[in-house]
Structures are given as C-alpha cells and as structure tokens.
C-alpha cells in the first residue's frame, strides 16, 4: 500500500540519483519519484517507480503526489466529480424530454417540463452546489482522515467495494425513509424545508437536488454519513469506494426523478428496487413512497403509494369486515 504517510524503504534507481544530483533542492519520494511541474509528467514519474500498479492506480497516485495537498486533491476531485456526474447524468433526460416518440414512456404523460423550468431548476441547483455543498465537500477530507479512510494504492478488490457499496445503499435508504417521512409528517418541516423539493409534481432528472439547503444537509448525512459510520466501526474504507458509491447514489437519485418508466427499468428485474415509478408517484400524490432506493420500508410499514397497494388495503379491509360479521 502506498499513501502519503506510509511508504516502504527506498530502492533508488540510477535515474533517480541523476535527477536528484541535477536538482538537489527538490524533494524525492522513493516510491513516486521527483515532484513534477505537470500532472502528466508526474504520472510518468509515478509509472517509472510503480510498475506493479494498474493504470487507474497510477492516475490516482499521480494526482495525490502532483497536488501535494490531500485536502485540496480530494476537494477538487469530489467537487468536479459531483458536477460532471450530476449534470452529465441529467443531460440524457433533458434530451429525452425533447423527443416526442419517448412520451409513451413518460409516467405523467402530459407533464413535460419546459425549457424555462429546466433552466431555473439547473441554476438553483448550481447555486446550491457552490454555496452549500462546496464548503461541505472541502471539510470532507479532514473528516475522512479522522475516521481513517484510505487514499492508498493499490485499490481494494472489486468484491470488497461492491459489498461495502451494497451496505451503504441499505443504510442510506433507511435514513432517507425516516427523515423523508418525518419531513412529511411534520407540517413545520414540510412548509419550511421539504416544500421546495415538491415544487415539481412531475419531476425530471435535474430536480433530484432541487431542495432547500437544510434538506440537502439532512439527506446528505445519509449519503456521506453511511460510509463514515461503516469506517468508524470497521476501520476499512477507501475513498475510491466512497466516490463510486456517491456516483451510483447520484445515478439513483437522478433516474428516480427522471419521470420515465421503461420495460427495461431495473425494478422489473429487481422488484425490491424503487426506481422512477416509485418516486414519481410520491411527487404526484405528495404522500407515501418515502424511501430512496428500495421498496421494503414502504411495503412493510404500509406507506406504499400505488394502485396495487390501494388494492391490497381494500382487500384487507374487506377481509377484516367479513371476519367481524362472522363473529
Ligand atoms: Zn417528499
Ligand atoms: Zn424527489
């Protein structure tokens, strides 16, 4: 494992001695070479001394060694990743909204967001990203370091990452269910916090993070806090796993707000998965379907909002009435 504070003893190659003699004031790190002026020069330097690492691990190590400041390196990477993924993932849904032949898949057929709606939504989300999320992202690295998240290479195995991400999905879903349900149960919280998110009764991808800063913080605790809690208890988590988790969570949130339901949507193959069908109904009816990723909380606690759930409730009531009569 190679990280900023934990490095193996040096094995100085000849090239190193030559370089060092040429510029004796520059600090040499035995595992990553000399600091370079550009990222790609640093990548070449890292590649020279770390032949056993794969391409992505070399990219990662070169980034952290080139930046020479872990807080800045993680901050820039996190913020850029969030913006690219958020707007990048929303873009296909904006295009789909412009295609009339896709309307047959639109859940609320007649409610197509206008360009003005999409623009004003994007601007508010962008404003919130710069004013509310940026400072939080900046604080993330010191917090991650405190709880022992790793930035070292080589990366953990894909199986380890997949297992941890599955756990985070379950943890975040539980947090989301209860906090979201509380925001609907309390009229104070609904009016002062959650109402902004319900401005669009027929959601669209960009509206996933259209919410009050307080709501962004409350729900963000589930997304960022789940891995942190995991790390606090197990002491085992890589920041890359955290990044992949956040990317998947963004995909989940944006797709759930897309407003489109396809025959190939995930919940047809994985019935516990919530998907757009589940969350669109929440925006339309303002009640029920409080969970983010899975259907089990709403199903078990009878807060599901769907034609089948209503049918189930009717059947249950009828059964109860007939058993009362029989007594
Ligand atoms: Zn809601
Ligand atoms: Zn929503």
From TrEMBL:
Residues 166-303 form the Fatty acid hydroxylase domain. The chain crosses the membrane at residues 227-248. Pfam families: FA_hydroxylase (PF04116). GO terms for biological process: lipid biosynthetic process. Keywords: Membrane, Transmembrane, Transmembrane helix. GO terms for molecular function: iron ion binding; oxidoreductase activity. GO terms for cellular component: membrane. InterPro entries: Fatty_acid_hydroxylase, Sterol_Desaturase_Related. It is found in: Membrane. PANTHER family: STEROL DESATURASE (PTHR11863). This is C-4 methylsterol oxidase. It comes from Rhizodiscina lignyota.
């Amino acid at each position: 494992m190679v990280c900023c504070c934990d490095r193996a003893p040096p094995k100085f190659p000849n090239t190193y001695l030559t370089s060092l003699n040429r510029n004796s004031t520059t600090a040499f790190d035995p595992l990553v070479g000399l600091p370079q002026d550009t990222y790609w020069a640093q990548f070449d330097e890292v590649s020279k001394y770390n032949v056993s690492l794969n391409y992505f691990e070399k990219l990662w190590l070169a980034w952290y060694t080139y930046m020479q400041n872990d807080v800045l390196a993680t901050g820039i990477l996190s913020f850029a990743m969030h913006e690219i993924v958020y707007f990048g993932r929303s873009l296909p849904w904006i295009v789909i909204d412009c295609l009339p032949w896709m309307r047959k898949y639109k859940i609320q057929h007649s409610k197509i967001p206008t360009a003005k709606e999409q623009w004003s939504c994007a601007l508010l989300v962008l404003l919130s990203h710069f004013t509310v999320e940026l400072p939080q992202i900046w604080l993330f690295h010191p917090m991650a370091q405190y709880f022992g998240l790793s930035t070292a290479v080589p990366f953990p195995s894909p199986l380890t990452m997949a297992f941890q991400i599955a756990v985070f999905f379950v943890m975040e879903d539980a947090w989301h269910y209860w906090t979201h349900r509380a925001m609907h149960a309390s009229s104070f919280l609904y009016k002062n916090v959650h109402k902004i998110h319900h401005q669009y009764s027929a959601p669209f991808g960009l509206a996933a993070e259209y919410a009050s800063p307080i709501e962004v913080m409350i729900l963000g605790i589930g997304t960022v806090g789940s891995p942190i809690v995991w790390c606090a208890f197990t002491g085992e988590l890589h920041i890359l796993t955290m990044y992949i988790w956040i990317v998947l969570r963004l995909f989940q949130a944006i797709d759930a707000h897309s407003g489109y339901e396809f025959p190939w949507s995930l919940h047809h193959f994985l019935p516990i998965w919530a998907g757009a069908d589940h969350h669109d109904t929440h925006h339309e009816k303002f009640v029920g379907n409080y969970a983010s990723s899975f259907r089990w909380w709403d199903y078990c606690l009878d807060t599901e909002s769907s034609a089948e759930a209503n049918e189930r409730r009717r059947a249950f009531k009828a059964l109860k009435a007939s058993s009362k009569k029989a007594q």
